[in-house]
């Protein structure tokens, strides 16, 4: 396997071996202190309380296994059923795929579910704390043998072509949206507020590594910007498929997809863990607000609990 990644089951070994490097010193300390382990029954205060209340939706094993999360992960980790749905969806679209790259792996919510479906899953994150949490959570879910991790800034990794040795079947990213404040304005500016770069640059960087790209973005994202970024990079007739994702009837975000394989998807072919698909027409009948434009394919998935 590519040397620059560390195997999720061997973080202790990696931290010992590369002990002179400051980030591995930090990793070693985190492991020794068993840092960020969640005590599921202990409520969190302030703005994290609502995320704690929904903790079992984030990680279903939070009561029975050891789960690790930083404060930032509480509000940015993808809820398990959504991550599970996405991994099944990608598997249905790319049945012979093997290698998935999760660009902002965070606490491993998506990485873990991808590893249930694919044999090689690569997780990247700028934070060594997040890399540690992903590895620990993957161990709790018994999928650490299929995951390889790398700490680093996405900008630098892409510009130095550090990741291009591997041929990824799909590149996925759930980037930082700027915290829970992302809902402050009606429309989320994807060029201004997405971290670590705007949507156009981000999409370009993902497409360098695979023609199949998915991003999880705010539900109030500016779809005009999405359209413009798509055409600017892929040409005037290129499309982006947008899926609105609901959990328990409540909109959580959108999956934006680029790549032929995602357009040929048939819902019937997917083992979709209770995910309900409505067409855009059904959405209108139900009186939902619609943001479809003529060049987009917009669907709603409702993940009922
Ligand atoms: P939320 O919108 O903060 O909470 O996060 P809620 O309860 O749905 O909305 P509210 O209207 O009651 O405030 C919903 C989901 O969005 C989270 O579970 C994450 O999956 C995702 N999410 C939220 N934030 C702030 C981020 C982020 O910064 N990055 C990423 N990748 N996902 C996020």
From TrEMBL:
It comes from the Eukaryota. Pfam families: Methyltransf_15. It catalyses: a 5'-end (N(2),N(7)-dimethyl 5'-triphosphoguanosine)-ribonucleoside in snRNA + S-adenosyl-L-methionine = a 5'-end (N(2),N(2),N(7)-trimethyl 5'-triphosphoguanosine)-ribonucleoside in snRNA + S-adenosyl-L-homocysteine + H(+); a 5'-end (N(7)-methyl 5'-triphosphoguanosine)-ribonucleoside in snoRNA + S-adenosyl-L-methionine = a 5'-end (N(2),N(7)-dimethyl 5'-triphosphoguanosine)-ribonucleoside in snoRNA + S-adenosyl-L-homocysteine + H(+); a 5'-end (N(2),N(7)-dimethyl 5'-triphosphoguanosine)-ribonucleoside in snoRNA + S-adenosyl-L-methionine = a 5'-end (N(2),N(2),N(7)-trimethyl 5'-triphosphoguanosine)-ribonucleoside in snoRNA + S-adenosyl-L-homocysteine + H(+); a 5'-end (N(7)-methyl 5'-triphosphoguanosine)-ribonucleoside in snRNA + S-adenosyl-L-methionine = a 5'-end (N(2),N(7)-dimethyl 5'-triphosphoguanosine)-ribonucleoside in snRNA + S-adenosyl-L-homocysteine + H(+). This is Trimethylguanosine synthase. Gene3D superfamilies: Vaccinia Virus protein VP39. Belongs to the methyltransferase superfamily. Trimethylguanosine synthase family. GO terms for molecular function: RNA cap trimethylguanosine synthase activity. GO terms for cellular component: nucleus. It comes from Saccharomyces pastorianus (Lager yeast).
